[in-house]
From TrEMBL:
Sequence segments annotated as region (Disordered): 1-24
Official protein name in the record: NADH dehydrogenase [ubiquinone] 1 beta subcomplex subunit 3
Family to which the UniProt record says this protein belongs: Belongs to the complex I NDUFB3 subunit family.
Function text: Accessory subunit of the mitochondrial membrane respiratory chain NADH dehydrogenase (Complex I), that is believed not to be involved in catalysis. Complex I functions in the transfer of electrons from NADH to the respiratory chain. The immediate electron acceptor for the enzyme is believed to be ubiquinone.
GO process terms (BP): electron transport chain; mitochondrial respiratory chain complex I assembly
Entry GO terms, CC: mitochondrial inner membrane
Classification of source organism: Eukaryota, Metazoa, Ecdysozoa, Arthropoda, Hexapoda
Organism name: Mythimna separata
Keyword Mitochondrion: yes
Coiled-coil parts of chain: none
Subcellular location, record wording: Mitochondrion inner membrane
Length: 105
């Protein structure tokens, strides 16, 4: 199959654009984030500088949540649905008279 001029020949290209858009680095700033400002001051006191510190700014965005909020979301996301399905399963098995095979021990 012939490729058209300018069409991507790299793996996964499929003639489309990139599957994601990399955000502009100027959107992120550590001003107003006390933890990162404190880290920058501590590094400056030691004569160091971290040019990539702005890459951590997204972690402190209010929409991202705290560390505990993310953990709770990850651990308990499916709990209500799983509990409901377990109760439905037990109810259906009781309703159709599933016998307890281990009762004679």
């Amino acid at each position: 199959m012939d490729k058209k001029r300018g069409e991507s020949t790299k793996m996964g290209g499929h003639g489309h654009g990139p599957p994601y858009k990399i955000p502009d680095h100027t959107k992120f700033s550590i001003t107003g984030i006390p933890q990162l400002e404190e880290l920058e001051k501590a590094l400056k006191a030691k004569g160091l500088r971290d040019p990539w510190i702005r890459n951590e700014a997204w972690r402190y965005h209010p929409g991202f949540g705290s560390k505990w909020a993310r953990a709770n979301k990850a651990l308990f996301r499916g709990l209500p649905l799983g509990l409901a399905l377990a109760l439905v399963t037990v109810g259906v098995s009781k309703m159709f008279g599933a016998k307890d095979e281990h009762g004679h021990h």
